[in-house]
What we know:
mainly alpha, three-stranded parallel β-sheet
Amino acid sequence: MEAQWTAERRGHHRFRTEQPPYSILTRGVKSRVLPTAQRYGMGVLAFGPLNSGWLSGRSDPTSGHRSAGAGAKMFDLGLPGVQAKADAVRALTDVAAEAGLPLPHLATAFVRAHPAVTAVLIGPRRPEQLTDLLAAADVELGDDVLDRIDEIVPPGVDVNPGDFYIDPTPPITDKRLRRR
């Protein structure tokens, strides 16, 4: 909002798009970012609908290459936030099955269902993943399914705040940049 106001006050072009992470498991942007984008007529290019593979339908999203390296903490079941994601994924898998959908289709359709979302950046790694995710482009979720999702992960909630590797409000440590 401040960026929009600043652009207006200074006679600059305002921002036209926002690219936030948004998935069933990362819904924090729903309370501030998405309403602001709607208010200012901005496009929203949501990324991460499968939440780094958690909603890919993989039987164990914590296994394989994801459990090593810099991003390993996102898959460490010893961390409470990660365990909460695993619990949510189990419940969401049941919702998807009851709706007759693969979990990735449910996850992608959920993101597309928000009226502020203009496009969903899906990020497949292999051609068959692209083919599968494109098959979900026409999936529409009913209110009953969306209500079940809301029961598992309430609107505005990020299941694991540790997912965000960038602190959204970093302190200004360079004293020259601080207001006096």
